[in-house]
Amino acid sequence: MITGIHHMAISTPDAERLLGFYRDLLGMKVVLDHTWPVGTEAADAITALEGSSARQMLLRCGNAHVELFEYRAPEARPGDPDRPVCDHGITHLCLDVEDLDAEYERLKEAGVRFHCEPQDLPQFGVRTTYARDPDGNVVELQELTPVADRPSAVEHHATV
Q1: Going from the N-terminus, what domains does the chain have, and what CATH number goes with each?
Q2: 38, 41, 68, 153: most buried by Cβ count inside 10 Å?
Q3: Triad 69, 74, 77: Cα angle to 5°
Q4: How many CB atoms lie within 10 A of CB 103?
């Protein structure tokens, strides 16, 4: 039986840069910071890689976690920092926020790239915008808005 979502993971060429974003700028708390050496059989089996080594960090965000991996071996292919959200794969991480406009301004002043200013989607009971972390991964910021007789924000993700 599946009971919930624990975390989502991001592979990065620069863990310190992403820690600066997720820990320092977004306020997530590091609960694990571990490096496994080359020759760790369980890690190789789980990742389906040979001779893997990586720094692995787990950050708590409310009731879920974001996991960051900086692989030291094998050498990774670079990602596209402007990968369109329509490309196959995980498209974005969504974070609930209070006072979306204030968070948008705070993060924009810190140099975070946004696709657009916050947008109202009253039919889904949400205000939302997409931003990019330093590696180009899309992070959605959403503020739930009270609405009667409309789909909930949870259903928003099934339709948008």
Answers
A1: 7-73 (3.10.180.10), 93-159 (3.10.180.10)
A2: 68
A3: 75
A4: 19
Q: Average pLDDT in the 72-80 region?
A: 94
Which pLDDT score is estimated for 146?
Answer: 79
Q: d(Cα 110, Cα 79) in Å, to the nearest integer?
A: 23
Three-class SS string for the chain?
CCCCCCEEEEECCCHHHHHHHHHHHCCCEEEEEEEECCCCHHHHHHHCCCCCEEEEEEEEECCEEEEEEEEEECCCCCCCCCCCCCCCCCCCEEEECCCHHHHHHHHHHCCCEECCCCEEEHHHCEEEEEEECCCCCEEEEEEECCCCCCCCHHHHHHHC
Look up tokens 């009270």; give the residue.
146
Q: Is the dihedral of CA 86, 137, 22, 69 positive or negative?
A: positive
Burial class (CB in 10 A: 0-12, 13-18, 19+), 129: buried
Residue 120: both structure tokens together: 């109202």
CA angle (51 as vertex; 48, 36 as ends), nearest 5: 95
pTM of the model: 0.84
